């Protein structure tokens, strides 16, 4: 395993077409594109890593997996009155389908859906409290109390909030958000700003590898059915309108973020976190996707074979 | 296993809300909705079955899995110039996205995509030859030479071809079909009219269970990577705009048909064919989906857990 | 003429199906639906009126005609870089087409377009100054210094701003708005809250009857070509996705508002203002449209005949 | 008037950017783009012409005005159950809105709408009979028995029917067409192939100038209200998604065809036919539109002023 990761890191270092760093959030635009990290956590407690696996990056939309988990914990199936669970076939920030479907987002992983989820878990509380809850959960599953928000990134996103503000006000106009739009957005942007390394992220994903139990800590986070269902949502919707491509090439449930990270789950085998800041035209990490494709070719890990 | 199937069949016999038999193809509208069959084929060569598992039904869109396999065999990755591989988020017969994407269908499992695939595999030949090839392939993977077209169903579909004719002419107007529209449609409707039982269908699916090898016959049908990729397409797009729901509830790659059948693949474990003619509002078998949900709860089979 | 108006007012008083008062702005929902007014101003300086022609009502979207006129005066044809001039075929508050067209609204009479126009005429000034300019213009063309904003209505709209806020943030995310979204919306809602009577409104429309000259005051407001072009925009886009219907039934350029008013221009003949608060399902005054249909049948006024 | 037309023809002869001749119908692609004709018929029986005003061209979609008139004559308001009367905001051959509106075309001037109209006027008869009726009507209003179909053009269109076949089958799948699709299309393509000169076309339009009476022949063709309403439809929908632009620049009801002709009506004043085969990107005659813009600037003819 370590050998495979070393090879991948070496290969990625040679790549010249590294994609384009997200530039609509100025704070992210500063990140050096010549970085690449990969880490694999396995249920037996081992951790393998290569490249910049200890560098912190903004997890951005990967955080949607964690708030979905929290949301299902707090609301159970009632969460699905707030958001659907079908792939949308549209870009991450599309508003069109919202109009067709009376403001109900297609799934919890497009921006509109994630905003609806964070509104649902606020339950009348202030952003601060909800953010405390989210951070506590992420620290718990990653077994690491050093994980924090990057307030500069959050502030930078708030300053460039227009597209997400449009989505939020649109949903609010259909009565789909209960809280003040700016409070919901503030919470959402902070959730996205959480900074983690590949190592931390791989460990945080472990509970989805083992039917809900984090074998690193030995603690059951959620029940087995819910774990499977979160994985199914990552598979179907985790890469926006590139989800089909990811399933085709990588064959594992995964969730990407515009910070350049991708968390990928191989049930029963391991949790893989990759990171490289350059994105493809859909908004997924270019080298991250490539590295994962190499990884599954080497390991044969795939939910579609055995 | 046999016990589980018996229980499911008993449970399904008690169901009163059985959905609505497809009525836009008159020949299918005659089918008695009070039928239900299930069959499971495992790589060790065993076959389990319950209910009307030997009754022939029209496989309809399940045939798209087989023509996709043929298409990948004949054209390789060049097939993807004809059709995409993303879920569409739209109903099976939608034409809208075609307009946005210059006549290129989103994936091979919506009607437009399957029509594009059959056009691609015709390669200048007459419908008769292409249909011979398709039937031969299905008989080969099911190891059963009695499998045939139901010409009455095909003729009935040709008489009510308008929606599919619209899709085909639309693609043709963008230069996306090479052959005469009526010949392509004739081939497509015959492909859909193939009549199979649950037992036959379960056996035909075996090659997707074992990385491309049909363990019943011991023959490698396709290579392992292609097998995984066909499964990924079934997972992402196999149930139209109900694909997310199926992944969430059943957690296995599957492909449904408006004849009421569903073929489902559990990699490494088995191939499950269910059939019940009543459909839900999306066009998937109502009892079929329900039976599969019971089945995975009992067996724990899921690609998203282990 | 007076006789025709009296008859129409009598007829309208008998109507039982009066439509539904706009309820998404609470302040408007309080208006008594049993009101109807009509006024006709002619270039020779005469004024005819019947019913509640002196009652003030919220002109709402009719104000878009006035800000368009101001915008063309300040920016000339450069205004058309901010907004198009095609009918959209969509409801007044639709956001879909914005996504297809990179945030550029189809025309100045849908909400998004009117918001873009007000942003364009602000030119770096504060809402207060822009609003002063708008009010001054309306008082000037109506020759009536008593015309004012209804601050309660404006405040009520600001409290229910979400749909329009969504449109504004969406355009802003494409760089299409220069000013702060809340300032633009504040200006827009005040512009919509202007309260006028049928008499005042009919007089304000006179400059569009006579190729840009208000014959009541004898002052040229705009040149003849611009007057014709504003009329053409009212004809094509003045009633949202009911514009074709209005052209078919009434045959004159007109602009409706959800306050229940409609301003209609018969070039060379007169300016007609009607008002009745109950709306049809598209958001146009139900009795207002009906009264205008009666009016043109009696008078033969139509731009499509002679 | 003659002087104005001479000037326009001279100006147009100097134009170097003449647009692109329609190439999707091979028979039309052969037409020499260096042609331009204009003719004006007035109610007092006068005819003015300049340029290639006697050259025959394919009237194409201008024929939709004539079949609409026939359709309203045969079915009255019942025609509006087959087709709507709102501008669509979409290109002439768009299929999207059909999907949203269950196969009912937005208006009689987009292709789908014109196909629905021809289906409606067939009333169980064969294409031959319907075509006889259409030709008889056109000869009658133009007072010219030499007008004929161009069978070569019709055959060429039938060979490249796919986009229109797609529209027709789509509507048929919703039960919106009563007749065989190929018969409807055959009739439609022949109707579009009618060959006329500017002179003939200007005379044919006269009945819409004078409230339904053709003053050349002194015969009432339709009643005044219907004449106004056909003009309103030409205004709102006569140039597809360029209708707003035409209303803005020309200010008169008009209908264009991809053969390069435009028929324009100035109520009470005259009927103007222009022709030049090069098209703009929307499919309207480039020089034709330009010539009309010059014409209205010189004459002041506009329905939006007086």
UniProtKB/TrEMBL annotation, chains A, B, C, D:
PANTHER family for the chain: GLUTAMINASE (PTHR12544:SF29)
Subunit text: Homotetramer.
Keyword Acetylation: yes
InterPro entries: Beta-lactam/transpept-like, Glutaminase
Species classification: Bacteria, Pseudomonadati, Pseudomonadota, Gammaproteobacteria, Moraxellales
UniProtKB keywords: Acetylation, Hydrolase
Gene transcribed to yield this protein: glsA
EC class: hydrolase
UniProt protein name: Glutaminase
Family: Belongs to the glutaminase family.
Catalytic activity: L-glutamine + H2O = L-glutamate + NH4(+)
HAMAP family, per the entry: Glutaminase
The enzyme's E.C. designation: 3.5.1.2
Pfam families: Glutaminase
Binding site for substrate: 61, 111, 157, 164, 188, 240, 258
Sequence intervals crossing the membrane: none
